[in-house]
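Bug report (template v2)

What were you trying to do?
Predict the complex of my protein with S-adenosylmethionine.

What happened?
Run completed; filing so the output is reviewed.

Input:
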Amino acid sequence: MTDKRRAFGRYFDNPDDLFNWLNQAVFGTAVMNALNRAGVTARILEGPVSVAELADAGDIPADLLGRMIDFLAAHEMLELDADGLVRGSSRTAMMLEASGFLTNVEISGRACAQLLPALREGKTPFEKAYGEPVFDYFHSHPDMAAGFGQFMGFMTRRVQRFIFSQHRFQPFETVADIGGSMGDMLLAILGEYPGTRGIVFDRPDVIEIARPKVEASPLAERVELVGGSFFEAVPAADLYILKQILHDWDDEECRRILGSIRAAMKPGARLAVIDHLLSDIPQPDESIGTDIAMMVWDTGRERKQSDFEALFTSAGFRIDRVTPNPNGHSVIEVVPV
Ligand SMILES: C[S@@+](CC[C@H](N)C(=O)[O-])C[C@H]1O[C@@H](n2cnc3c(N)ncnc32)[C@H](O)[C@@H]1O
């Protein structure tokens, strides 16, 4: 069942609602990004603090900061007590936790402005806006790559409880997270499955960004970090994870990634694809939004289960088990035929 209340069409029934909704979303994102980056959010979370002190800490004019604090208080993102002190809440903590995601919204905005001309020119909007395909751009902008990695960690924390409670993996010795970013998913899996070992595989530049965090983990001795391209070759393992990878690429590119995995799989190995599943009938859910995000960012798309079936068949796999998640990423476990 879909929650039709999520459909933004209803805002168009009333021009006041439409104006208010878009304004709050666009400018709210800007305010949250500014305060996260200035260190203001972190300072609020340390304990009650005056606007003047926050203005000094964040190097922001106090009157302008005061208006942004009022805005966030009005939206119940933080609290202003009777003597004007600013107090954080669990929502303020979430605002900081979501900083990678909020940055991503900003990056997407610049690419979205190029949607129509880019599609007419046969480019991705991201490439038209930023001059390079997304992962090459991250290679030349490590700060942005690190922010993107943080966003991926946020997305992983959102879904891992669902995965571990609803989709138990069969016994395995070594799990390889292909395109594993900062290692968040891999570390979560090793924590959940004691006695196993794991590999984070990603582009060499991304692996170097991930290294300090992974090596600082108490599970570090069970982890191997491997740099490379999944279009060429991946390490041997008996459980593979592809989380939010296939949705970045078109079918032909996906077949190359799947081919690398198939060639490396140990006997009896399995592949768990963790991605959104598009509904057969369009619904105003997360997947239909990220489908357009993939159109803006890269050559990928979200897929229906029937699209995945056709893709896997053409790459020499068959679907063994599907655990659908109506509120996020589903798990599609496949085996080679
Ligand atoms: C959308 S992110 C998903 C990250 C992670 N799997 C997750 O769900 O949190 C895509 C990942 O693919 C990686 N990637 C892109 N091209 C790659 C390539 N040719 N070989 C290996 N990894 C690649 C990116 O660096 C990035 O970490």
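What did the reviewer find?
Residues 170-336 form a domain with the Rossmann fold fold (CATH 3.40.50.150). The radius of gyration is 22 Å.
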